[in-house]
């Protein structure tokens, strides 16, 4: 079974349990739901429309307004359990404004895991989309949708980026690792810190410039990034019954519950928990499988190529529901499908999987992808942790987990097709 069908069946369970849902939330199901797509899946007419909307939002001061809000509430919304609900509500508010210009707008996301090995070569960061690194003394971005813009908050300055590592950011987080975080966390406190202190921070830091600052909403990459994080939270909510899971500390140290108010918005967290209800009338295209969606691919790779102990440690959901007990020779054949030695086992593996439900995925994975070791990911910096007042022990734990994952996968000679 593919990951996408798990999500669809989770959604179906949610919909059949309408009375529970309403008791939890007391909100009506949306009469219609629009879809947030991966940026590179937009059609050219959608992208033309979105560029015009973003230009109008800049002209009317909305970039400055969202940056101002993010700075004003900075200490309340990072490093605690407000992180996911606040940013969900924040991106949704941004999108609501965009939809006042044209109701065809839906905030896209950037599937950053797709580009994790060499982020600077991402198509997203080109003139066709959101532009690349800044240049000159002020690191002004001159291409892409915000190229040449003058931002007005907190003072007048050119829109800037300052890619890490002299313009060539090192690796981010693999699809396998992020999938593992979605699968293995059983509470909000650890899921939140795992995500906030890894992928979340590194993308902000590595794009740099405006994106590094408290006023990072100046860079539309902020919305693409947080839509992706929101999509991953939603995946986590739908797996293993976490739809209503909320725990961990609030900004004042008290326990966060579904009744805790979201900073600034003063609405209870429960009101944003369930997409498709109340004001949360959107869905993600990964739930209907976009062209660039990786989730089903990730699941297929894991199911056929990992030993049981690694599966249950890092991918407990896959272990429970997807694992195919292949015979030892087949497992060996599959794990030998490396760059240099790919041809011989293909025919055997393809024949064995020819009548299985995952035949098509196996076929495309073994014939079309190069497989390589997962590199250790970049880490958030001490300066960044300090700027956000992060708990140092939590940051150290998250960094160690990410390193251990890569090392454990290397130990079993796992090679990733991503
Ligand atoms: Cu933020």
What CATH architecture of one domain do you see? Orthogonal Bundle
> Which fold name fills CATH's third level, the topology of one domain?
di-copper center containing domain from catechol oxidase
> Cα distance, first to last residue?
20 Å
Low-confidence region ranges: 1-22, 287-294, 338-345
Named once each, the bound ligands are:
copper (II) ion
What characteristic shape results from the CA principal axes? globular
CATH domain class of one domain: Mainly Alpha
Structure notes:
With 418 residues, the chain is mainly alpha-helical. It has a domain at 3-288: Orthogonal Bundle (di-copper center containing domain from catechol oxidase). It is 49% helix and 2% strand. It has 18 helices and four strands. It has helices at residues 3-16, 18-25, 44-59, 62-72, 74-77, 83-101, 164-167, 175-184, 188-207, 221-238, 295-305, 308-314, 316-321, 328-335, 343-353, 359-368, 382-387, 392-411, and strands at 34-36, 150-151, 157-158, 282-284. The strands form two sheets. Strands 1-4 form a two-stranded parallel ribbon. A two-stranded antiparallel ribbon has the order 2-3. Helix 9 (188-207) packs across helix 18.
What does this entry show, briefly?
With 418 residues, this protein is mainly α. The protein has a domain of 286 residues: Di-copper center containing domain from catechol oxidase (di-copper center containing domain from catechol oxidase), CATH 1.10.1280.
Please tag this protein with its features.
418 residues, two-stranded parallel sheet, di-copper center containing domain from catechol oxidase, single chain, binds copper (II) ion, mainly alpha
């Amino acid at each position: 079974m593919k990951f996408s069908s798990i999500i669809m069946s989770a959604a179906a369970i949610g919909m059949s349990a309408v009375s529970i849902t309403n008791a939890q939330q007391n909100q009506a199901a949306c009469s219609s739901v629009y879809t947030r797509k991966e940026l590179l899946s937009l059609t050219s007419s959608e992208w033309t429309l979105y560029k015009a909307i973003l230009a109008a939002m800049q002209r009317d001061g909305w970039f400055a307004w969202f940056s101002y809000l993010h700075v004003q509430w900075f200490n309340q919304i990072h490093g605690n359990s407000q992180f996911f609900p606040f940013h969900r509500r924040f991106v949704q508010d941004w999108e609501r404004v965009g939809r006042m210009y044209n109701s065809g707008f839906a905030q896209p996301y950037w599937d950053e895991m797709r580009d994790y090995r060499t982020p600077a070569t991402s198509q997203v960061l080109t003139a066709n989309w959101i532009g690349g690194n800044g240049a000159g003394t002020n690191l002004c971005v001159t291409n892409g949708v915000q190229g040449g813009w003058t931002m007005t908050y907190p003072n007048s300055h050119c829109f800037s980026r300052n890619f890490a590592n002299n313009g060539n950011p090192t690796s981010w987080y693999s699809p396998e690792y992020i999938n593992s975080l979605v699968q293995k966390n059983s509470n909000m406190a650890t899921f939140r810190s795992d995500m906030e202190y890894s992928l979340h921070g590194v993308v902000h830091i590595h794009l740099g410039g405006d994106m590094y600052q408290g006023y990072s909403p100046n860079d539309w990459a902020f919305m693409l990034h947080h839509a992706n994080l929101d999509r991953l939270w939603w995946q986590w909510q739908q797996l293993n019954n976490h739809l209503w899971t909320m725990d961990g500390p609030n900004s004042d140290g008290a326990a966060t519950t579904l009744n805790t108010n979201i900073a600034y918005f003063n609405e209870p967290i429960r009101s944003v928990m369930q997409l498709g209800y109340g004001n949360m009338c959107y869905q993600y295209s990964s739930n209907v499988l976009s062209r660039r969606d990786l989730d089903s691919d990730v699941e297929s790779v894991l199911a056929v190529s990992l030993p049981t102990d690694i599966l249950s440690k890092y991918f407990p959901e896959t272990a429970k529901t997807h694992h195919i007990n292949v015979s030892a020779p087949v497992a060996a054949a599959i794990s030998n499908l490396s760059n240099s030695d790919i041809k011989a086992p293909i025919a055997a593996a393809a024949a064995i999987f020819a009548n299985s439900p995952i035949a098509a995925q196996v076929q495309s994975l073994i014939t079309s992808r190069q497989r390589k070791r997962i590199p250790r990911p970049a880490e958030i910096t001490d300066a960044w942790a300090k700027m956000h007042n992060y708990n140092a022990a939590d940051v150290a734990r998250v960094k160690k987990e990410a390193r251990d994952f890569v090392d454990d996968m290397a130990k079993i000679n796992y090679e990733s097709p991503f």
